[in-house]
Amino acid sequence: MIAPWEIDWRKRWQGHAPILLQPGSVTEVQTIVAAANRERVPLVPQGGNTSMVGGATPLPDGSAVILSLRRLNQVRSLDAEAGLAIAEAGVILADFHAAAAKAERRFPLTLGARGSATIGGLVSTNAGGTQVLRWGTMRGLVAGVEAVLADGSLFEGLSALKKDNRGYDINQLLVGAEGTLGIVTAATLRLAPAIAARAVAWVGVETPDAALRLLRRFEAAGDAVESFELLPAESLAAVLTHVSGTRAPLPSGHPWHVLVEAVTSDPDASNPTAFVERVLAAALSDGIATDATIAASEAQAEAFWRIRDSISDAERATGPAAQHDISVPIEAMPRFLIDAAKACDARFPGTRASGFGHLGDGNVHFHVRAPAGANRVTWLAEEAPSVTRFVDDLVVAAGGSISAEHGIGQMKLAELERLSSPSRMATLRAIKQAMDPEGILNPGKLLALAPQAMGE
């Protein structure tokens, strides 16, 4: 039964595939891809099926075969001293975290779907998460890639070379390509030292601008801050209402909240709690922050993070929303959050807009919730597209990107085309045509279907 793999995680895209293939080796992947290329059978590579933009869902016409990489689930090697590991595409992120921890190292990328998201999918979407502030996106953590190309040949790029000037960087070309240029089968990943101690704080602030000022205070005081997440009161309220076992970290309400984590990997260094206390004391004294609490235990720290990780689930429970994964220049983000929300609320009466997420790297998830009582299916089909075009125009006007970490998939095809320069689109298409001339790799994702793929 392959029905669960024909629908996306958000249940927005429903496709059909005649069969799901689960190769158990790279050689089997090569055999499948070579045959598909020869017979011009489209393939949809799939890992944990956690795409937020329909990037791993087959198209409705049933022309494509799902190629699951879940059985390629081995950590081939882990060199703790070198800080490098080779993980196959089907390795689940949480399992990779555990493997690194066993070697007293860590992989510094995490996200809410870590229990199901796979390494191949994370590479192919250039995933972000909550630790980008210090460690960058997946692109910065990938030291090499192994991938099966459209003709079935194997690109062997796992060597973690510091210098390699042999022309175009094919490794990085495959990162974020959403499976449209090659099927990632393994990646060499950079590891970080294990955390010796951490401090997790929850802070109440009046405005996003105050939150940014607080971030700059932390950055000026040292380099210990690894995560800096911004949440509006609406998002916290949704979690407290719909996620059992959660409670407000602060005794009184605040318009905005910040979740900040500082860490040290040096067991002989001072505990980061003192660092966080010092910065927060000054921020409270100066009126940048209005209240704050530092987790007194690991359990409380995890409770704080559970609130942040539960926002998407909680907001789904509140009703339909047009969801946007956007980035703008960091200094422009506070004003964007306020002005864009006001503009959306005025343009679409009855809606409620707000953003939450990774303020430290200029990426937030900007959601415009439907009016109370709106029919989910009808509103998403008839009203949400207009909302999205309006929001995307605001993002572009602010010098930002309509896709910060989720990719393009099926969801943003039309908007990418509408808002990108002709030179960008021509370059993307030229690369796709050169690497996948038959158009078999994940058709209808990232780029619109080529005429030959549509049977014209």
TrEMBL record:
Gene3D superfamilies: 3.30.465.10, 3.30.70.2190, 3.30.70.2740, Vanillyl-alcohol Oxidase, Chain A, domain 4. PROSITE patterns: FAD_PCMH (PS51387). Its EC number is 1.-.-.-. Keywords: FAD, Flavoprotein, Oxidoreductase. One of its GO terms (molecular function) is oxidoreductase activity. Residues 13-194 form the FAD-binding PCMH-type domain. Its cofactor is FAD. InterPro entries: FAD-bd_oxidored_4_C, FAD-bd_PCMH, FAD-bd_PCMH-like_sf, FAD-bd_PCMH_sub2, FAD-linked_Oxase-like_C, FAD-oxidored/transferase_4, Oxid_FAD_bind_N, Vanillyl_alc_oxidase_C-sub2. Coiled coil: none annotated. GO terms for biological process: respiratory electron transport chain. PANTHER family: BLL6224 PROTEIN, D-2-HYDROXYGLUTARATE DEHYDROGENASE, MITOCHONDRIAL. Belongs to the FAD-binding oxidoreductase/transferase type 4 family. This is Putative FAD-linked oxidoreductase.
